[in-house]
Amino acid sequence: xxAQLNLEGWLSGNISIRSLWKCIAIRTIPYGxxxxxxxxxxxxFFALWLLLLPGSAAxxxxxxxxKPYQLLTPPLDTPWTSKVGTNPWPQHPRPxxxxxxxxxxxxxxxxxxxxSSSSRSSPNVTGPPPALPLAEEVLIPSCIESxxxxxxxxxxxMHMWFGTPFSVPADWPRKHRVLLNFEAVDYEATVFVNGKQxxxxxxxxxxxxxxxxxxxxxxxxxxx
Length: 224
Known about the structure:
The structure is a single chain. This protein is an alpha+beta fold. The chain has two domains: 1-11 and 64-224, Jelly Rolls (Sandwich), CATH 2.60.120.260; 17-58. Helix content is 12%, strand content 23%. It has helices spanning 17-26, 35-51; strands at residues 3-7, 102-104, 107-113, 136-140, 160-163, 165-167, 178-182, 188-193, 196-202, 208-211, 221-223. Strands 2-1-7-10 form a four-stranded antiparallel beta sheet, with no helix packed on it. A hairpin with a 2-residue loop joins strand 8 (188-193) and strand 9. The longest helix has 17 residues, at 35-51. Residues 7-31 and 48-61 have low confidence and may be disordered.
């Protein structure tokens, strides 16, 4: 998979919070505790209780850290495997169609397997995409069976998610359209930008282009 973004026509205490509240309400002080200590402990435990309430920011699941990318050695290796690096093919893939306002999306993305049926752990590939980052880092472009992908998967995996954050410069002219170009995705691709499906393609050897002007946020982080 080779992706790019173009512009233009191409582009511990022993007092509980309940006992603390009772002490303050009836104005009694437990042995060994001053009134200021009781007040301070009450504020601390009350704040802690609020943080642990369901739906509070602290109670929300935190963004996971994907498994870092690591070059793997395939069964059949070549001298060029270690020379690819993590910034493959930074040049414009079609020099005759080059525009000044463009950027490559090649590099380290994240990846995880997906099932063909909907579930929380492996969402349906045609449903809403899972939150980024995904489970493992992967090099794009590559195929997941290869050593340079960092995955070297086997066993007939049929469905998978790939994702990356990207930004669109705020100074790109707004009068033009922003196009997302894929040189090829084997074999089918359902594409989402910021959670919204923007296109579908079938055919592992074909280039395809999607107009994502209405879905992107200029000068902000977007998710593909």
